[in-house]
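Input record, target 12 of the design panel.
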């Protein structure tokens, strides 16, 4: 894709009056040496500072993550988990790090049986053992060069001196508060520590601290000092671990069972990347327990059988992309769980012949609900999991001056995780365990691959991805938040770049469309953020082909970097607070 910028111009001219050329839309940023893209300008600035002062992408990630946990607390942080794809320029090797949260040792498969999503979410039961602090240390130990304590400087200063509450944070606090019966009868922000931190308080108006309010977080600063001094051990043992376990076990809604032993036993696992060949490009990402690389890989592998045309919003392409999404989600829901516990036919699901046989199921009309296929290879007998909603995650893409590339999707699962802030420590707990299937078995007793089991990691949709060209050189770093929509957002970003020749910002500015084996979702255009297009005409055309269509917000948070001959081209997602840095 080193010719991608030139190609982009040609393709866009071919599109005639393409809205992509609209000057009021965000434009790509180009740098010569290094780049970091995150969902927040302060986090990007922290990463940029580390890169500029000679840090690697791994060093920069530590600075980015510590700031994100402070300024975008609803999405990721020390209390959550993450997946990272790392490409090492010196060795040419690519590897992945699984820092997914784990179920406690005492978890049983009926943990969530009969509970509503909200009841499970806003409880101690949903909290998995966090992986993010350990991931920061592992990445730094293996790929960092800057002194560990130096990576905490920005986050510490912001926590101590203050930073502005973003409009996104304030809006999300208010929308959750609005779900409570009353200010005194609160499930959301039931935890008094989180309530005091994020709101004006019950005595004032029980509303979110307004956007722009400068707040400090001295407790988070103290936690960062512990990590700076003791490393991840300072998180997983001692007072901090005891406080995490206590916060879970004394949850005001439903107490959970996570213990200090669970924390002490946590380990990040390095796993081989899952890669698919797509039109001569290698697309590499996170395998199980994430369904990300498998589902993105299946979508691409199925699309490879078709000529996609030249319009990223063309009816035929949107149809094909939706059908590929249906087929990929059918397999994902049946087969994917934590491979430390269940056998997943990883290679079979990406087998070229198998994917061609799946592509052959696509006709000119919507296929309706797709059934799972039977990929080659071994797998456990399993029943499909029904989809649940997921909504707090962030994506970080970094390329450093040596050419190392890092793609990390980092999460606390839903907005503000499980809603509990660890008292005295200034960070929120995750609710990642709600990513498990609530039902352990189908009606006939067949087990579901993603059922709860002790010390298991819940299936994810997170799809941190690095794309390589035919020579094995990094050409794209991409990924997004968005729950199970992450798969479509990420796959679409790759097709927009590889097939339609769009630069990263243009690829992000294209309105989203996808199908998770239900209705076909079309994104309402956002003035100044996405291309304008006739969504009603596209909806009508798809309905004429039998698609059930829903139109609405599809709030991705893509962070993309493209490597070109003379530098790096970045795109950030202005559906959220995306920001690009580097030079
Ligand atoms: O791992 C997953 O797939 C989900 N817990 C991610 C949640 C998410 O992306 C929410 N984002 N907006």
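The sequence produced for target 12 reads:
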């Amino acid at each position: 894709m080193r010719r991608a910028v030139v190609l982009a111009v040609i393709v866009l001219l071919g599109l005639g009056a393409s809205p992509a050329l609209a000057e009021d839309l965000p434009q790509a940023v180009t740098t010569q040496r290094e780049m970091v893209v995150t969902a927040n300008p302060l986090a990007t600035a922290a990463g940029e500072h580390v890169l500029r002062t000679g840090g690697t992408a791994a060093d920069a990630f530590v600075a980015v993550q510590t700031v994100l946990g402070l300024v975008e607390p609803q999405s990721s942080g020390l209390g959550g988990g993450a997946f990272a794809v790392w490409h090492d320029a010196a060795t040419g090797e690519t590897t992945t790090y699984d820092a997914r949260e784990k179920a406690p040792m005492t978890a049983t498969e009926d943990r969530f049986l009969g509970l509503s999503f909200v009841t499970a979410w806003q409880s101690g039961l949903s909290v998995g053992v966090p992986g993010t602090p350990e991931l920061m240390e592992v990445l730094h130990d293996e790929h960092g060069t800057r002194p560990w304590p130096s990576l905490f400087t920005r986050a510490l200063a912001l926590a101590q001196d203050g930073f502005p509450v973003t409009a996104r944070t304030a809006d999300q606090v208010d929308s959750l508060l609005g779900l409570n019966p009353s200010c005194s009868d609160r499930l959301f922000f039931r935890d008094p520590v989180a309530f005091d931190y994020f709101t004006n308080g019950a005595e004032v108006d029980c509303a979110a601290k307004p956007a722009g309010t400068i707040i400090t977080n001295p407790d988070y600063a103290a936690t960062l000092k512990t990590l700076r001094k003791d490393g991840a051990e300072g998180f997983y043992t001692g007072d901090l671990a005891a406080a995490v376990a206590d916060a879970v076990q004394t949850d005001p809604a439903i107490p959970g069972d996570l213990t200090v032993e669970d924390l002490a036993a946590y380990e990040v696992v390095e796993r081989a990347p899952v890669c698919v060949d797509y039109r001569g490009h290698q697309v590499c990402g996170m395998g199980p327990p994430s369904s990300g690389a498998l589902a993105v890989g299946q979508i691409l592998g199925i699309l490879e059988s078709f000529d996609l045309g030249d319009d990223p919003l063309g009816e035929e392409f949107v149809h094909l992309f939706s059908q590929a999404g249906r087929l990929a989600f059918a397999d994902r829901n049946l087969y994917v769980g934590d491979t430390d516990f269940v056998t997943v036919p990883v290679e079979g699901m990406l087998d070229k012949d198998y994917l061609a046989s799946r592509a052959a199921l696509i006709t000119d009309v919507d296929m309706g609900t797709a059934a799972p296929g039977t990929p080659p290879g071994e797998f456990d007998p399993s029943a499909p999991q029904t989809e649940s909603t997921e909504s707090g995650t962030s994506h970080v893409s970094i390329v450093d001056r040596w050419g190392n590339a890092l793609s990390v999707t980092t999460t606390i699962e839903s907005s503000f995780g499980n809603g509990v802030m660890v008292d005295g420590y200034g960070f929120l707990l995750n609710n990642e365990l709600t990513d498990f299937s609530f039902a352990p078995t189908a009606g006939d007793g067949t087990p579901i691959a993603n059922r709860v089991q002790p010390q298991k990691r819940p299936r994810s949709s997170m799809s941190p991805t690095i794309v390589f060209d035919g020579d094995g050189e990094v050409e794209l770093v991409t990924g997004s938040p968005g729950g199970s929509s992450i798969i479509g957002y990420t796959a679409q970003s790759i097709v927009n770049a590889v097939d339609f020749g769009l630069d990263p910002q243009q690829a992000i500015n294209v309105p989203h469309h996808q199908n998770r084996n239900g209705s076909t979702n079309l994104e309402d255009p956002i003035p100044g953020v996405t291309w304008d297009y006739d969504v009603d005409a596209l909806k009508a055309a798809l309905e004429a082909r039998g698609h059930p269509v829903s139109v609405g917000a599809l709030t991705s948070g893509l962070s993309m970097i493209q490597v070109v001959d003379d530098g790096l081209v970045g795109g950030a997602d202005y559906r959220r607070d995306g920001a690009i840095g580097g030079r």
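The pocket of 6-diazenyl-5-OXO-L-norleucine is lined by residues 390-393, 411, 413, 432, 435, 460-462, 481-483, 486 (CB under 6 Å).
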